[in-house]
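[audit] Reproducing an earlier prediction to check determinism. Same input, same settings, fresh worker. If the tokens differ from the archived copy the diff job will pick it up downstream; this log only records the rerun itself.
[audit] input (454 residues):
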Amino acid sequence: MAGASLPTRPSSRFSVIALALALIGSAAMLNYYLNWFLPRAREVKAAKGLVGYSFGDDLYTVWYGEHAVSQRYGDLYSPAITHEIQMGLYGRSIDLSRPGDPKDLRVFGYPAFTELLFWPVSLFPFELARLVFLFIQIPLIVVTTVLWMRALSWHPDWPSTAVLFLLVLTSYSALEALYAGQVGVFVSFVLAASIVALQRGRLLLAGALMALGTIKPHVMLLPILYLGLWSLHDWRRRRMFCVGLFSTEALLVGSALIVWPHWIQSWLNVVFRYHGYTPPSLTIQMLTTLAGPAARPAALLAMATLLVVAVVLSWQNRSASLDSPDFWFTLSILLSITVVVLLPGHAVYDHLILMPGIFLLAITWRRLPENWAMKAMLITAVGTLLWPWFASILLIPIHSLLARREFYSMAILAIPLRMAAGLPFIVLALLALAYRASRQCSVASRPQGLTAGS
């Protein structure tokens, strides 16, 4: 997007104050997450007789899969592999009929080619592998942030950039991803890198990067749908994106078939059973929490409607140029729909894909209609976004005033996380309103008598 659309840069004094507040908030958030939240989570887990790896638990499924290859297991998705993963993460097998046992069975749920991409992980003992992976993830999140800023042609001053880095790295999403060793950090990176490659005219590379992100196919589904339609619209000039996407995907799938000839069938069986042992989407969780189980059909209808909107929006803006507002609003809205519809409700670590939408709103918020309702929504959005850091600061004096049992109750300890589920819906709503305002401005700026077909 054109840099001319950026708001006026804040004064140096305001930037320094914002940086100081960000440092304080980030330190408070780290203190909350590392010293209070995680120890309490481990206590709850131990009280249920679940003693195993917590730090790097998502990475463990990938790491163990690599060792399963060396032990000549024929099926990554077999009950034997699931049992061994459960033994590493829980210390025993999980029984869904047993009260208090986790619903997440820790079945290996990634496409088999994930193991081929992450094979270096198996070269280290797990205790070392998770540390190495952590120190790769941190700069990867920083680079992803830079890529999105560059793609949006957003160049804030250095204190504002430092504030962004601090808030991104200490966000609940990033902390969860870092602690779990989530491969979703890699997916967020290749998505951002793919868009930058597109803008630089490297369509073959962009398609290949997009294919690498399909280790989490539900995260990449809507962006690939849109960019596929975008490529087909001007096939002569844009076809290399599809060439890179499908050739790389074929290479990944084919290589995995050589090692595991029946992995696709086994993986699909896991996918079809996935909803049975993972939390539902945020849309279902929010509506059933507010209105009870009877709201589930309405939630399913809302999800279907959002997916239809995603398809229609992708089709309408398939001709958009890569630096146009239409392209960026479409991509950001699709990623927001992905979060509220396609991701499990607990997958906060994948909310990093909301980053371009939040940045886009930071750039374009001045274009939104100036009425009291919009101002209230913007204030709510900013408050929801910054709430974890503000609440973490508030908990510091509260910790010294309350007894341990009271402080570690869900009513108090979970205060900084209260807004995590609502933020994606607010971002989606604001993006929709900002997109509508952008379209209205575009129509209003056309010369009189000019029609869409002219």
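[audit] rerun output stored. Observation attached for the diff report: The chain has 20 helices and no strands.
[audit] end
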